[in-house]
Design a protein that fits this description.
The complex is a heterodimer of chains A (422) and B (274).
Chain A lengths: L1 E8 L2 E7 L5 E11 L5 H11 L9 H10 L4 E9 L2 E11 L10 H14 L10 H16 L5 H13 L21 H14 L2 E7 L3 H11 L24 E5 L6 E8 L9 H12 L7 H9 L3 E9 L4 E8 L4 H16 L5 H17 L4 H14 L5 H9 L3 H9 L2 E8 L1
Parallel strand pairs in A: 2-6, 7-11
Antiparallel strand pairs in A: 1-2, 3-5, 3-6, 4-5, 8-10, 8-11, 9-10
Chain B lengths: L3 E5 L4 E7 L5 E6 L6 E7 L7 E3 L7 E2 L4 H9 L1 E2 L2 E2 H7 L3 E6 L4 E7 L3 H13 L5 H19 L2 H13 L13 H5 L3 H11 L5 E7 L3 H12 L21 E2 L28
Parallel strand pairs in B: 3-11
Antiparallel strand pairs in B: 1-2, 2-3, 4-10, 4-11, 5-6, 5-12, 7-8, 9-10
Chain lengths: 422, 274
Amino acid sequence: MKMRRLAVIGNTGIYGIRSGRFKTNTIHVFLQDVLSGERAALNSLIPAILKAGTAGYPEMKDISMRLEELYGSAFSCGTHKKGERQIISFHIDFVSDRFINSGGHLFEDCFSLLSAIITDPFLENGFFRPKHVEREIENHKSLIESRINDKAGYAAERCIEEMCINEPYGIMETGKTEDLEGINAKSLFEHYRKAVAGCPADIFVTGDISDKRILEACRILFSGIDRSGVTKIPFADEYRGKPVPKEICEDMKLTQGKLCMGFRTGITGEDSRYYALSFCNAIFGGGGCLHSKLFRNVREENSLAYYIYSRIDRFKGIMTVNSGIEISDKEKASAIILKQLDDMKAGNISDYEYEATLKTILTSLKAMSDSPGGLVEHWLGQSITGTSDSPVDAAAKFRSVTKDDIIEAAGNIELDTVFFLK
Amino acid sequence: MAMTTMEYPEIGEKLHIYEYSNGLKAFLIPMKGRLKKYAAFAVNYGSVNNTFIAPGDMEPVTVPDGTAHFLEHKLFEQKNGNVMDKFSALGSSPNAYTGFSQTAYLFSCTDRFRDNYRLLTGFVRNPYITEESVEKEKGIIAQEINMYADDPDWRGYFGFLNALYQNNPVRIDIAGTVESIGKISRDTLLKCYNTFYIPANMVIAAAGDIDPDKFFEWTGEALADWGRSPRGTAGGEMDLDGGITRIFPEEPKEIAAPLIEHSMSVSAPIFTMG
């Protein structure tokens, strides 16, 4: 299996991850924009309105029927944020030609459907259909409002919002409900036209499809659109200076308190110290590490939580800790969490912690080659940070991280915001 | 007993099955060329099995709600520490889950499958439960229960089951309640373990680039001598459930309630019907 950037056509990076190992092939198209208060809601509405119908498949049900004809291919789209970028994604999964009698062109058929959804929407009087736009705005409003339903997720988002109140990273990728006011079929269409022409884009194809077929298909995607004006997105500014910790408490009459802590690390993905930071996070509270300091001390030793983990957003250089605890245990849990970080800064990292964490990281990098989605995610990340480390390169870099490097990375981590939902 | 093989040529996969003389069934799906390897060891025992007559007993026993799930947590505890640390040392990730009618222990890894597999079979086969560790676990499980209590979809689903069933234990949350788990002791857990965790009531399965002959050999080495073979019933026939009598309460035809409502902060009402 190998991953290669095949070409850049119309300011669009085209990547092929060639492997005969998978039964399912995939196509991913990502558009990137700067995360901004003005455009977050508009950008989120783009995939929502595009999936509502194309010129050739005017209604959602027509697209669904076409997907069924394509041997039950699956289409999905949406937006998410990576650092201070908003990513608009479109994705289709389809079975490899070797399992069906499709005539050997299921990839081309799926690509042309995906391409139609992105570039050839159903139009009425030159714009999106007002009825559909109104419906999608209503749906989107419900989606934004429903974020309070997932209590742990909501608390984690609120922590980031409060922490980055003056930075683009604090903007919700869905936008706010008030941002939806005043959006209509015309303004959304005009925004969409600008986005498909001006946003940097990446296309990833995984599976047993030749480079030639990929390039031919990709040439069609943006062929009718002038993409000469695409501008590069600058990498997020990293926060400098020592934060003054703040604490916010919000009441929701919960059974369990959701404790979130946001830390500044000063290190992002394009920094050579990133691997040491990532290693440091894994020892401290990494999700896959059952031997992490947080899991062992907060859960196993003190029985304070069922879930506790830390993670980093390498596109922004922020580390967050999330846990569900008894409301009355907030001070006790916070103190134990901060003590673990102090321990790391003081160099209290056992050989077992170092070795087990390294092995856990290496296992997940190795297992990535079995997962087309994982590989695409990895390479999209590399494309954003402007690096080109393969999972094998990343494994080598993790292996070369020393305990001293980890302690040094830990030394940069400073508490910024505590958010408690109860 | 010989290995049987099911072929699925349409998708290019095979499933190998081997049954040991103690009643344990093992399954392997060889996946050539894949780097990830996966195994799961499961018992036909879950949250609904809270009343039963153990083999050899005369009287039924009813255990506190959430016992099967509690046992799942405690099996990871071993004489020389938590077995999770041993998986971690190999760089692999173990996990487990309890459902209404099953409990499963699993891991995924890329390297040293056999060592990981030995850990899995070893800890499920050898419980080491102390009173002290049972007490310690109560705080952790209470937080797991509280986490689900704040989940609107989960609350909706269990509200629905409570409206549908008057007596069937499927209406009770898999993890029990903070109150019910307070009553669980080491003895409760061992009683359930000894009743249900017997080879004839269990299956083990793996998938990945693993040689079938070796896999069934390793499984045999680890588990074929596991004590109790299936007990004969009064008629002398083989009872593959190992002589466990599972008791369920009488369930009236009528539903328990036409509507159950619960108030919590959500953006719009969530409902489940069926």
